[in-house]
C-alpha cells in the first residue's frame, strides 16, 4: 500500500493568532498519483541535486519581455535564464542586485542560438539589498503520512523575504534523502503535497507529483509566479 504525504511548515516564533486566508486542503482527486507517472526519476533528478544559487547579481539581457538572463556560472552552465510570470515582474528585477535560488532544467532551455552551456529556472529571484538576516530563520517542518503526523525536521533561510521555491526545494531534498520521497524509480508514496500559508493573502500548495505525461520544464512552472513569503509572519 502506497502512502500519502502532507507537509506543513511553520516558522518558529510565529504567533498563530494572525489573520490568514486559508485555502482548503486539496481533495485527493486533485492530486496526481505517482503510480501513473512515467519517468518519475526525472523529478528525482531535479530535487536530488544541488539548486542554482547566486547572490548579488544583475541581469545582463533578456530573450523575451518576461524573462531575465544572467552571466553566472555553475558546474553545467555559463548563462542562466529565469522566466517570470509577466513583463511587469521581470521589470521589477531587471538591472537590480538580486539573489537567485532555483531548481534548474536543461532540456527545452532556450537562451539563444550560441548558448551551449545554459540553464533555465522559473522565478527564484529576491532583492539582495536589505533582505538578509544576521541569524538564519529556523523553520519547523511537520510531516503527516496517511493522516498521522510522522516526523518533523528543521530547515533554515537567511532571507527576510524568501521564495516558496527555496523552501519547497529544501523540504523535498530532505524528504528525498531521508524518506525516499523520490527515487531513481517508483516512489513508495502515491500522493503528496506541501501547503504554504502567507499572512493576509490566500494560501497555496504544490503537488509533489506531476501529470502522467510531463517534462521537467513544464512541471517547474509551479515556480513561475515567484511567490515570496515573509519569514517572520508566514506559515508554510
Describe this entry's structure for a reader.
The chain has a 5-stranded mixed beta sheet with strand order 9-8-1-11-12, covered by helices on one side. A 3-stranded antiparallel beta sheet has the order 2-5-7. A 3-stranded mixed beta sheet has the order 3-4-6. It has helices at 41-48, 87-93, 164-179, 216-219, and strands spanning 3-11, 52-57, 67-70, 79-83, 98-102, 118-122, 125-127, 132-145, 148-159, 161-163, 189-196, 204-207, 228-230. A hairpin with a 2-residue loop joins β8 and β9. It has 236 residues and is an alpha+beta fold. It folds into 2 domains: 3-49 and 136-219, Ubiquitin-like (UB roll), CATH 3.10.20; 52-127, OB fold (Dihydrolipoamide Acetyltransferase, E2P), CATH 2.40.50. 35% of the residues are buried. The model is unreliable at 11-21 (pLDDT under 50).
